[in-house]
Write a structure and sequence with these properties.
Order of helices and strands: EHEHEHEEHEEEHHEHHH
Number of strands: 9
Oligomer: single chain
Mean pLDDT: 92
CATH superfamily of the largest domain: Spore Coat Polysaccharide Biosynthesis Protein SpsA, Chain A
Largest sheet: 9 strands, mixed
CATH topology of the largest domain: Spore Coat Polysaccharide Biosynthesis Protein SpsA, Chain A
CATH architecture of the largest domain: Alpha-Beta Complex
Number of domains: 2
Amino acid sequence: MKYNSIVTIAIITFQSKNIINNCISSIPKNYKVLIIENSNSKILKKKLEDKFNNVYCYLNKNNGFGQAANIAIKKIKTKYIFFINPDVTLRKNTIKILVNTAKSFKDKFSILLPSEKREYSNKIREIKEIGASSMFVNKKEIIKINGFDENFFLYYEDTDLSIRFSKINSKIYLVPFAKVFHLGGKSHDNNYNFEIELSRGWHLMWSLFYFKKKHYGKTHAYISTIPLFFRYLFKYILLILISKNKSRKYKFRFMGLLNAYFNKPSWYRPKC
């Protein structure tokens, strides 16, 4: 079997120039890699395409992970797409194991997840929620549900995907003996750590409310998030004179919720 003819690697990047090389280097050179570069960096595109013969970098405006992932889904022609974060490196034979597993299931799955940690059982098992740094996607199945919900800029898009797959009875499986290493929170340049942290706080809260409203109704969304809103507002006010940076973190969290309450889109973008 020519594994590289049926799977393409997709990586969504934003200010990832200091970490992406390690990620790409862990991918066997005979696999095509599509990078969707959300910071629209022509310099990064040139460097990556010059250095790696198997890489094509598509420049994109930063509209979030889901929108970029949908671009990848449209562009990639192979039957499987292996999405990995820029701060992930693959272990030996990870892709082959996932492809063989897909074949053993006769493509009756939506997503296969490799393991990021030590597993006490190598038994493949069904799981209900994604929440991972990498996912091996059956393209036919993700097209059935029209891909990612692009209203999410960041956070909860994978949980939303899990619920929508469950509604069409399309299964998600963890494959424990397919291994990846995930650094975690290192997918961007360290120079932008604080700005990215502010953005994450804003979008975490916006996406939480939107997710709850979408799947459980507006009343549930308000009731379950109002305590968070007042907690973060109180901490913001309390910390104004003590620590400006800590104060701003809480401000961005309650502002994310406030914008969601007023039905505004997930408009905030990190200033990078």
